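Field: sequence (string)
Field: structure_tokens (string)

Example rows 1 and 2, in order.
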Amino acid sequence: MKSLRQLLFTLFMVAGLAMAVSAQKDDQKKPPPKEGRPPVVTPADKNKPKDPPPKGNDRPKKPETSWTFAYAKTESDRA
């Protein structure tokens, strides 16, 4: 009797899972269709610089890098 109950339980579980999987296949949402034409981008439409960069000594100076090291002298007592 116990084995018959386990067999029926297994069959019902397999049937229930099969129905659950088949029900989920139809619920997949499709993306809405795109309307109109996509925008056309051309490389010539980019903003051009107003003035050319300065040449020679007219360029602004870049900041220099400075390194600073701090040294703290500590005394320790040794016995």
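Row 2 begins here:
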Amino acid sequence: MVVLGLASWLFTHKFLTSALPNIVLGLSLFCLSPLTAWVVRRRFKDNPYNGVEVTWAFNAEEFNSTGEGFNQTQSWKKVYEFLDTPAGFLIYPQKNLYYWIPFSGFSTHQEFENVRAIAKANVNRYAAVV
């Protein structure tokens, strides 16, 4: 968009009417990703649960997260999506919210294999990411 705006200005010699809107839009789109990352980091830093240790418990019907000031239980059938990554699980209870469960948090290899099997059997949207 910036290049298009500059080219438009060079060929028409009308900066404000032809080039400025394209340049402003191009710079806005260019800055959108870093601005979004900054906002997300800032919101996470202000989150009262930032740095709180969370304990997870999994069984065939539901999973539970417990930490300082909260205790939440959710059915596997209500999970929006479950992503199995090389380093852990991403559990999406909603489209724009996820829980990160690293494999390093499990005591044994068999424990996260059990969670993987439960999720495959119960979650509607299960995907393995390589």
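free_text_note (row 2): Helices lie at 2-12, 15-46, 109-122.
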